[in-house]
Write a structure and sequence with these properties.
The complex is a heterodimer of chains A (about 300) and B (about 300). Chain A has about 300 residues and is of the alpha+beta class. Chain A is about 40% helix and about 35% strand. Chain A folds into 2 domains: about 200 residues, Immunoglobulin-like (Sandwich); about 50 residues. Helices cover about 70% and strands about 5% of the residues of chain B. The two termini of chain B are about 30 Å apart. Classes of the chains: A alpha+beta (about 300), B mainly alpha (about 300).
């Protein structure tokens, strides 16, 4: 009985080695060969603060991005807010007049896209720029969005280069608002640590902004490691209430807007009328006093 | 003091917005116009997205027109009965005009034709008003306004005549509804509020005294502004209440000042300033149509 019990244990142990440990070993092997470079290269990222609260006094805020990369590697960082659709219009000649001849909807474009690097962007091979999205002309963003152009009764979809004219005009507007920015050499490195302070403009994009950090070997055009972080921008207090009401409760918001305007008009009229009466009253009182003084002087 | 505007998504000076509102309100009180023609481009210039600028500007007009209408009404310068007739006609015309825009757009070249017509109309109305008021000013004696009940020309000969005591005119209801209807159609075709067309129509076609025409026009503008604000919040969700609030405080005060200032001016002086504004808007529109724009692609939305 004892022999048979030992035999059972031996069999069980063999089965354990065969069916349980073997997959574990396989997993370890797979991880060591095909693991994400971030883990292999030891890239870490920390974003502070993780929540940006936008109130009525919001005038922009700095976000600190720091972390570690393999020593000697260059650091590339991109910030991309959620993709959205934007309406544009194009002027052209209609006869001898300059008029709006087409309107377009740019689909899937982030309102904010910023690039920060520790070195020169020109030193990065084009393939690496395309892969990381670190491109001063924002080609990666352009290739990811679609432009739907409507001109008269004609509608056409413009992709990539075709939509360049619209995309470039949009980027120009966003650059003016400091939403699209390139900070070449703005990332400071020390040993294996890096740090950059990103100034978010007042026209900040709401939602979750994705922060992608790449450690690269610029000479060989290799990505040594990458890691993602994020921060959220949300409206709070009165600003939050107003945004939520405008977006989700149109009829109530509309009625409220009209009632407030009507009430303001009414109150200001009453106030002016009251002031008018007050001035007239004091004017009359002053005149009466002057008249009676003059009457006394004459007598 | 800067303030973040949640729907517009920009930070602007509160004083700047109060000032802009005040300036436009002054025009409303003086001439009975909404002032969107001036405020929307100004807001866009300071960084407000076009769709938000156009919608919030309309909400501001509600406050300015209430404030101005009450101030004018207190002095007996608003003909509510006549104004209501024009509003009914205007709402019907606006509905027909909106359908007409859709139909005409399919025929092509609609926008070109309508822009040319609008510029020519502003040129005609502005020039006529300027010459007429200038000649009236040169004559020492002002024309007798608000004397005996006046027959309003061709419109006085149509049936269903009613006497409007405030304006001192006798006019056919059919003519009033018809004129309101035409103004509504024109406003819808041209994408404007209609204040620019309303005032000359009241002064020259209905022969209403200038100050009473200003007050009554402002009363009609109120309804147009409410209508547009409501549709903007429902369809586009682009009214920024905070932006509108700052503008409307300024404009309601401006409308009061404008009303009082209007009483100090002669009717001819009021008309001549209004004609210069009409001609100024015409020049700006003609400039935009004829000169190569600085940027061919711009943000969509707006008026």
């Amino acid at each position: 009985m004892a022999v048979s019990t030992t035999g059972v244990f031996t069999k069980a142990r063999r089965a354990f080695w065969r069916f349980a440990l073997l997959p574990v070993l396989l997993l370890v092997f797979t991880l060591s060969v095909g693991a994400p470079p971030a883990l292999a290269a030891g890239v870490t990222v920390n974003v502070e603060p993780k929540q940006i609260e936008v109130g009525l006094d919001f005038a922009g805020q700095a976000v600190d991005i720091s972390g570690t990369v393999p020593p000697g590697s260059e650091v590339l960082i991109t910030l991309a807010s959620p993709a959205r659709n934007v309406n544009l219009s194009r002027k052209g000649k209609a006869g001898f007049l300059w008029m709006n001849v087409a309107r377009a909807e740019v689909e899937g474009v982030p309102k904010m896209y910023q690039i920060y690097t520790s070195g020169k962007i020109g030193d990065l091979p084009p393939a690496l720029q395309a892969k990381t999205g670190v491109d001063p002309e924002f080609r990666t963003v352009r290739n990811a969005c679609t432009v739907k152009e409507i001109s008269g009764n004609r509608e056409r979809i413009l992709k990539g280069e075709e939509g360049k004219e619209y995309f470039d005009a949009l980027v120009k507007m966003y650059r003016r608002d400091h939403l699209y920015a390139v900070g070449e050499g703005a990332v400071r490195t020390e040993g294996n640590r890096f740090r950059v302070s990103v100034p978010l403009p007042p026209a900040v994009a709401f939602g979750e902004t994705l922060v992608s950090v790449y450690a690269v070997d610029a000479k060989n055009g290799e990505i040594l490691g990458e890691e993602k972080g994020s921060f959220a921008v949300r409206a709070v207090g009165l600003a939050g209430l107003e945004r939520a009401a405008a977006k989700t409760n149109g009829p109530l918001y509309g009625m409220l807007a009209i009632y407030i305007a009507l009430a303001a008009g009414l109150v200001i009229d009453l106030l002016f009328n009251y002031l008018n009466k007050l001035f007239r009253h004091f004017g009359k009182a002053a005149r009466t006093a002057r008249d009676s003084r003059e009457a006394v002087e004459i007598h | 003091m800067s303030i973040f505007l949640p729907v517009a998504g920009v930070q602007l000076s509160a004083y700047l917005l109060l000032g802009l509102g005040g300036m436009v309100g002054l025009l409303s009180g003086l001439f009975g116009v909404g002032g969107g023609f001036l405020l929307t481009p100004l807001l866009m210039m300071v960084g407000v997205p076009p769709a938000v600028a156009a919608a919030s500007d309309t909400n501001q007009i509600v406050a300015a027109s209430v404030s101005g209408t009450l101030a004018h009404g207190r002095n007996g310068n608003v003909d509510f009965k006549l104004g209501l007739m024009m509003i009914v006609g205007g709402l019907l015309g606006g509905t027909v005009g909106t359908g007409l825009v859709h139909l005409l757009r399919q025929l092509g070249n609609f926008d070109v034709v309508i822009k040319i017509v609008y510029v020519l109309m502003l040129l005609g109305v502005g020039t006529f008003m300027f010459i007429e008021s200038f000649q009236a000013l040169r004559k020492k004696e002002a024309p007798p306004e608000a004397a005996a009940p006046k027959q309003t020309g061709l419109f006085g000969r149509l049936p269903l005549k009613v006497y409007f005591a405030v304006s001192g005119v006798e006019c056919s209801l059919i003519a009033l509804l018809g004129l309101g209807f035409l103004i509504g159609i024109l406003a819808a075709l041209m994408g404007v509020g209609g204040g620019f067309i309303m005032l000359p129509v009241m002064i020259y076609l209905l022969r209403i005294p200038t100050l009473k025409a200003v007050g009554t026009s402002l009363f009609t503008v109120l309804f147009t502004a409410i209508n547009v604000t409501m549709s903007q919040t429902l369809v586009n969700q682009t009214v920024d209440l905070l932006l509108a609030l700052l503008l409307l405080i300024g404009s309601a005060v401006g409308a009061q000042v404008g009303t009082r200032l209007g009483r100090l001016l002669k009717a001819e002086q009021l008309r001549i300033i209004f004609s210069l504004i009409v001609l100024g808007v015409m020049v700006k529109m003609a400039h935009d149509l004829l000169v190569v724009p600085a940027s061919l692609i711009g943000p969509g939305g707006g008026h």
